[in-house]
């Protein structure tokens, strides 16, 4: 193998640049030519492919977003689009592709591998919802962004004796809500993996009030319901007045944390090694501090569980 390429796809996450840098530098270190594909699979189909040198990934390790840009493409889900993408890669004599993205991007990588073009998946998403890795690239940074926002909101909640509902990202996975809620001492944490009764939330708020507590923080993952809907029903059915804060896209941005930079560098470098070993269709991850690779199709068929005991602990500590 002499030439490989790298692309970023789907929702961006802090640390994608550090992963691109690792793929490029490790590739060149190993004697390869490395190419960047711009705008994900959409750019791949359109042949937006450029050679990257050592300098083209200089000064990016600390930047959020992705220098290769990201995109979503419905068109790419068609077989003929995938064949076109492979043709574009072969035009440049590229023989392997590293895809940095979430589970949708992994599906694309699996399809290309099935059609004879070896791809490797790197978990780039703030959601921490990919099986086969304890952490995804970007989760730690997003978590810290959310925690610092909650800390600020808590200051005003305390000053005004208010209950705040803070809506965070996580349509199917509650990791951001759970970890940020635990780390910021939230009174209630609502995640899509659990069924939450509104009665329970109300009882908890009332118990707090009985012991003299006048403010509360409820962290809500967007996949449960919207903060507006929860606020409305607390007010209408229980006469509990709340303020809401929807954190939105600030959770995706910012300079990656040290943890994410190291994780991205380790996983990116390993992706190059696995391609050089002649193995495609693998998803790189970190499990129990070790860098591992798993079959990408198996990863896609598994549900990433919440870390054992963390939800129970959050309940125990917020009585
Ligand atoms: P993420 O990778 O963050 O989960 P998406 O789910 O939007 O983001 O997926 C990113 C891109 O991956 C999609 O726009 C599409 O081009 C490609 N993709 C998603 N699912 C498939 C699929 N089943 N087959 C081929 N490509 C897919």
UniProtKB/TrEMBL annotation:
<keyword id="KW-0324">Glycolysis</keyword>
<feature type="active site" description="Proton acceptor">
    <location>
        <position position="127"/>
    </location>
</feature>
<keyword id="KW-0479">Metal-binding</keyword>
<dbReference type="GO" id="GO:0070095">
    <property type="term" value="F:fructose-6-phosphate binding"/>
</dbReference>
<feature type="binding site" description="in other chain">
    <location>
        <position position="154"/>
    </location>
    <ligand>
        <name>ADP</name>
    </ligand>
</feature>
<feature type="binding site" description="in other chain">
    <location>
        <begin position="213"/>
        <end position="215"/>
    </location>
    <ligand>
        <name>ADP</name>
    </ligand>
</feature>
<feature type="binding site" description="in other chain">
    <location>
        <begin position="169"/>
        <end position="171"/>
    </location>
    <ligand>
        <name>substrate</name>
    </ligand>
</feature>
<feature type="binding site" description="in other chain">
    <location>
        <position position="222"/>
    </location>
    <ligand>
        <name>substrate</name>
    </ligand>
</feature>
<feature type="binding site">
    <location>
        <begin position="102"/>
        <end position="105"/>
    </location>
    <ligand>
        <name>ATP</name>
    </ligand>
</feature>
<comment type="pathway">
    <text>Carbohydrate degradation; glycolysis; D-glyceraldehyde 3-phosphate and glycerone phosphate from D-glucose: step 3/4.</text>
</comment>
<dbReference type="InterPro" id="IPR000023">
    <property type="entry name" value="Phosphofructokinase_dom"/>
</dbReference>
<comment type="subunit">
    <text>Homotetramer.</text>
</comment>
<dbReference type="GO" id="GO:0005524">
    <property type="term" value="F:ATP binding"/>
</dbReference>
<keyword id="KW-0808">Transferase</keyword>
<feature type="binding site">
    <location>
        <begin position="21"/>
        <end position="25"/>
    </location>
    <ligand>
        <name>ADP</name>
    </ligand>
</feature>
<comment type="similarity">
    <text>Belongs to the phosphofructokinase type A (PFKA) family. ATP-dependent PFK group I subfamily. Prokaryotic clade 'B1' sub-subfamily.</text>
</comment>
<keyword id="KW-0547">Nucleotide-binding</keyword>
<keyword id="KW-0067">ATP-binding</keyword>
<dbReference type="Pfam" id="PF00365">
    <property type="entry name" value="PFK"/>
</dbReference>
<dbReference type="GO" id="GO:0030388">
    <property type="term" value="P:fructose 1,6-bisphosphate metabolic process"/>
</dbReference>
<feature type="binding site">
    <location>
        <position position="103"/>
    </location>
    <ligand>
        <name>Mg(2+)</name>
    </ligand>
</feature>
<dbReference type="GO" id="GO:0046872">
    <property type="term" value="F:metal ion binding"/>
</dbReference>
<feature type="binding site">
    <location>
        <begin position="72"/>
        <end position="73"/>
    </location>
    <ligand>
        <name>ATP</name>
    </ligand>
</feature>
<feature type="binding site" description="in other chain">
    <location>
        <position position="211"/>
    </location>
    <ligand>
        <name>ADP</name>
    </ligand>
</feature>
<dbReference type="InterPro" id="IPR015912">
    <property type="entry name" value="Phosphofructokinase_CS"/>
</dbReference>
<keyword id="KW-0963">Cytoplasm</keyword>
<protein>
    <recommendedName>
        <fullName>ATP-dependent 6-phosphofructokinase</fullName>
        <ecNumber>2.7.1.11</ecNumber>
    </recommendedName>
</protein>
<feature type="binding site" description="in other chain">
    <location>
        <begin position="185"/>
        <end position="187"/>
    </location>
    <ligand>
        <name>ADP</name>
    </ligand>
</feature>
<dbReference type="GO" id="GO:0016208">
    <property type="term" value="F:AMP binding"/>
</dbReference>
<dbReference type="InterPro" id="IPR012003">
    <property type="entry name" value="ATP_PFK_prok-type"/>
</dbReference>
<feature type="domain" description="Phosphofructokinase">
    <location>
        <begin position="3"/>
        <end position="275"/>
    </location>
</feature>
<dbReference type="GO" id="GO:0048029">
    <property type="term" value="F:monosaccharide binding"/>
</dbReference>
<feature type="binding site">
    <location>
        <position position="162"/>
    </location>
    <ligand>
        <name>substrate</name>
    </ligand>
</feature>
<feature type="binding site">
    <location>
        <position position="11"/>
    </location>
    <ligand>
        <name>ATP</name>
    </ligand>
</feature>
<dbReference type="GO" id="GO:0005945">
    <property type="term" value="C:6-phosphofructokinase complex"/>
</dbReference>
<dbReference type="GO" id="GO:0042802">
    <property type="term" value="F:identical protein binding"/>
</dbReference>
<dbReference type="InterPro" id="IPR012828">
    <property type="entry name" value="PFKA_ATP_prok"/>
</dbReference>
<feature type="binding site" description="in other chain">
    <location>
        <begin position="249"/>
        <end position="252"/>
    </location>
    <ligand>
        <name>substrate</name>
    </ligand>
</feature>
<dbReference type="GO" id="GO:0061621">
    <property type="term" value="P:canonical glycolysis"/>
</dbReference>
<comment type="function">
    <text>Catalyzes the phosphorylation of D-fructose 6-phosphate to fructose 1,6-bisphosphate by ATP, the first committing step of glycolysis.</text>
</comment>
<dbReference type="InterPro" id="IPR035966">
    <property type="entry name" value="PKF_sf"/>
</dbReference>
<dbReference type="GO" id="GO:0003872">
    <property type="term" value="F:6-phosphofructokinase activity"/>
</dbReference>
């Amino acid at each position: 193998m002499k030439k490989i390429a790298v692309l970023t796809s789907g929702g961006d996450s802090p640390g994608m640049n550090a992963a691109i840098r690792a793929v490029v530098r490790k590739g060149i270190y190993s004697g390869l030519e490395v190419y960047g594909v711009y705008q994900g699979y959409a750019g791949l189909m359109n042949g937006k492919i450029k050679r990257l040198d050592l300098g083209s990934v200089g000064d990016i390790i600390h930047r959020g977003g992705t220098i290769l840009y990201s995109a979503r493409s419905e068109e790419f889900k068609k077989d003929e689009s995938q064949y076109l993408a492979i043709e574009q890669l072969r035009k440049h004599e590229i023989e392997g592709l590293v895809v940095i993205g979430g589970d949708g991007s992994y599906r694309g990588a699996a399809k290309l591998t099935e059609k004879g073009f070896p791809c490797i998946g790197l978990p780039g998403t703030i959601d921490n919802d990919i099986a086969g890795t304890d952490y995804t690239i970007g989760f730690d940074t997003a978590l810290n962004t959310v925690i610092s926002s909650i800390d600020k909101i808590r200051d005003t909640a305390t000053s005004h004796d208010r209950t705040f509902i803070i809506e965070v990202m996580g349509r199917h996975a509650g990791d951001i809500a759970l970890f940020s809620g635990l780390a910021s001492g939230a009174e209630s944490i609502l995640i899509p993996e659990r069924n939450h009764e509104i009665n329970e939330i109300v009882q908890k708020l009332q118990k707090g009030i009985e012991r003299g507590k006048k403010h509360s923080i409820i962290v809500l993952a967007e996949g449960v319901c919207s903060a507006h809907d929860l606020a409305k029903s607390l007010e209408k059915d229980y006469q509990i007045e709340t303020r809401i804060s929807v954190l939105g896209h600030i959770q995706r941005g910012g300079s990656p944390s040290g943890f994410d930079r190291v994780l991205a560098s380790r996983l990116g470098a390993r992706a190059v090694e696995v391609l050089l070993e002649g193995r495609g269709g693998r998803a790189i991850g970190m499990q129990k501090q070790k860098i591992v690779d798993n079959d990408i199709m198996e990863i896609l068929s598994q549900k990433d569980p919440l870390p054992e005991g963390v939800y129970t602990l959050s309940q125990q500590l917020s009585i």
